[in-house]
Design a protein that fits this description.
Elements (H helix, E strand, L loop, with lengths): L3 E5 L15 H11 L5 E3 L5 H5 L4 H10 L1 H22 L3 E4 L21 H11 L6 E5 L6 H7 L5 E5 L5 H13 L7 E5 L14 H19 L3 E5 L5 H16 L2
Parallel strand pairs: 1-2, 1-3, 3-7, 4-5, 4-6, 6-7
The protein binds zinc ion (ZN).
Length: about 260
């Protein structure tokens, strides 16, 4: 059994209505680095009912009416997160190489290049169908996963950690500390943004830090939930190194 698999679909390369910085080139660069390292499972779109567990009908209709292509790709991203979470429940750590990202999408609001909250859609579905009763979400993106926090605000069974730090050392210490304080749970989900990288907007983390983060989360998953964890792509915009950083993170998560 492979220690880690990818969920991907070539339609993530679609040009849809969004900011130019959240470009198809991001996913393309990551895919080019990772494809030879890990097996790939092809994503299928989420059902509308999966989206409606976390978003209002009004928000879903807004996304759909603004751009059909955006709506379809956002459904495929949420579907990729669902598939990644299912693989995690089968004991296979999984990275969802998906776009658009999701962690800024709240119940009735989507912004910051996000439309549907992919990680929340996946976790809420597993709770709704009785597969899990609790989960921990770790958001390592430079930006606050405000949408994820809003969705799970009233759901104590889902603990959301947004890692905040100004230096490499404090970032890694914060992550260790927060994971160390977690109680046993059923599943770890990671909002994996790479814009905290030293050459990206955040200017903090080195490439090897992403391997350390992957390792730290893998160890925590074994301690807390029998190793069950999945990650989904959020931000990360420095294209020359983006694939290498994601590979370092995935190798850490896989323990390879
Ligand atoms: Zn970000």
């Amino acid at each position: 059994m492979s220690p880690l698999c990818l969920v991907y679909h070539q339609d993530y390369l679609a040009s849809y209505y969004t900011s130019t910085v959240e470009s198809p080139a991001r996913v393309k660069a990551i895919h080019a680095k990772l494809a030879n390292h890990f097996p790939i499972v092809e994503a299928v779109p989420a059902e509308r009912e999966d989206i409606l567990r976390v978003h209002t009908t009004a928000l879903v209709e807004r996304v759909e009416s603004e751009s059909r292509k955006t709506y379809e790709t956002a459904l495929l991203a949420a579907g990729g997160a669902i598939m990644a979470s299912d693989e995690a429940m089968r004991g296979i750590s999984t990275f969802g190489l998906i776009r658009p990202p999701g962690h800024h999408a709240g119940p009735d609001r989507s912004w910051g290049y996000c439309f549907f909250n992919n990680i929340a859609v996946a976790i809420t579905r597993l709770i709704a169908n009785g597969t899990i009763t609790s989960a921990v979400v770790i958001d390592i993106d430079l930006h606050d996963g405000d949408g994820t926090a809003a969705i799970f605000n009233d759901i104590p069974a889902v603990h959301v950690i947004n890692v905040k730090a100004r230096t490499r050392t404090s970032f890694l210490e914060f992550l260790e500390h927060e994971l160390g304080n977690c109680s046993e749970t059923d599943l770890l989900g990671i909002s994996a943004g790479f814009d905290t990288y030293v050459l990206d907007w955040g200017g903090i983390l080195e490439r090897e830090d992403y391997r350390t983060i992957g390792n730290t989360i893998r160890a925590a998953a074994h301690r807390l939930c029998q190793g069950r964890c999945f990650a989904v792509l959020e931000g990360g915009y420095y294209l020359p190194d983006l694939g290498k950083n994601v590979l370092a993170f995935c190798e850490g998560l896989a323990g390879s």
